[in-house]
Design goal:
The chain is mainly alpha-helical and 55 residues long. The chain has one helix and no strands. It is elongated and about 65 Å long.
Length: 55
């Protein structure tokens, strides 16, 4: 069964992960995010039930 043979796809997967972690990821991490998080106070909304005419 060719699905169980790890020879063709395992080195490709490992090389792609190594490429991502060693080359691409360090280049992406220094970018400053455009939407910086802000300190917002959490407020709870007052929810009331609706009066349905058929109940």
């Amino acid at each position: 069964m060719p699905q169980l043979n790890p020879t063709p796809w395992l080195p490709i997967m490992l090389m792609s992960w190594l490429t991502f972690t060693l080359i691409i990821q360090p280049k992406l991490l220094p970018f400053i995010p455009t939407n910086t998080p802000s300190n917002k106070s959490t407020t709870t909304a007052n929810t009331s039930s609706w009066n349905w005419p058929w109940t």
